[in-house]
């Protein structure tokens, strides 16, 4: 028997006295004694009666109540429990209301262990914080699409290409993190945004470096005996990045070998992958001179606390009117090795702290070429001091 539907009218609902009124098909209107009113739907699922509220009146009109009833009756015809389905929809809606800022912070937190110093320097998070979150931070991550990303990064896509690339990369990680949390996101949104933005016009520029023939004059000009001059001397002598130099501790040195902790080496994040540095006679002399400034075990302390900053040596070169920067001395050294020695590629790259070869190759090759590097670094120090011809081939390694 077909049950009649739409028994009620809008005026009848509005003027109803306390009681329960059927609209047909299991939809009921209940007017309470206190004057309030609400809608509910009765359905039968899996042999039992289920009753679900559809909202209060007049916030939910008769028309809206009928639309909801039609939706949930259709579910019961498919053998689905409408109450459980609605609860599932509500849970999904709540999940997908996570805004990008919260997801980004959670993604950052989960990756801190992979980052240098647990990400305290903020370099991983800053591209998002500066260029993405101001515009998209309050947007539910499930609603972010390629056009949102394009419009956000378009202002810096060509003018600050490297920063934009990092921001896009971090955003992609955040989207994958959101998916892992069970949120409904478009994992291809960043790739689609790249297609909309087009190829970046800006070309990355190498850090300016002195030609290796000019390095000895610069090295010999660092004569004031200050922490900055001594740190820069040791940086040039060892061809390392600034972080190992700045965080050098006296207890890391044994004889003429300095063991740099893996966390201080860019390509050796695993603490077990410490890096041995052979110290030339000149490097040992610089360390001995700098030891007078040592504080809390650190050879190059700052004026106030901690160690000298990442910018200390750069600012000194800047004050001299130079465009070159400390990191460029690594390039100077590498060019000298290539042009003036017959050192193997593996020896030259290991001097700079680079990890050479794949994981399998490194597993079988246990040497770090310490003896070959010791000879090479001693020769480099002689070049810096101007005590021998700079262009003579020196190694047969």
TrEMBL record:
Superkingdom of the source species:
Bacteria
Cross-referenced Pfam families, in alphabetical order? Arm-DNA-bind_3, Phage_int_M, Phage_integrase
- From the UniProt record, list the coiled-coil ranges: none
What GO MF annotations does this protein's record show? DNA binding
InterPro entries, per the entry: DNA_brk_join_enz (IPR011010), Integrase-like_cat_sf (IPR013762), Integrase_catalytic (IPR002104), Integrase_DNA-bd_sf (IPR038488), Integrase_DNA_bind_dom (IPR025166), Integrase_recombinase_N (IPR010998), Phage_int_M (IPR053876), Phage_Integrase (IPR050808)
Q: Which UniProt keywords apply?
A: DNA integration, DNA recombination, DNA-binding
**Which intervals hold domain Tyr recombinase?**
205-377
A GO BP term, please? DNA integration
Matching SUPFAM superfamilies, A to Z?
Answer: DNA breaking-rejoining enzymes
Q: Which family does it belong to?
A: Belongs to the 'phage' integrase family.
The record, for PANTHER family, names: PROPHAGE INTEGRASE, PROPHAGE INTEGRASE INTS-RELATED
User: What is this protein's record name?
Assistant: Prophage CP4-57 integrase
**Which source organism?**
Roseovarius litorisediminis
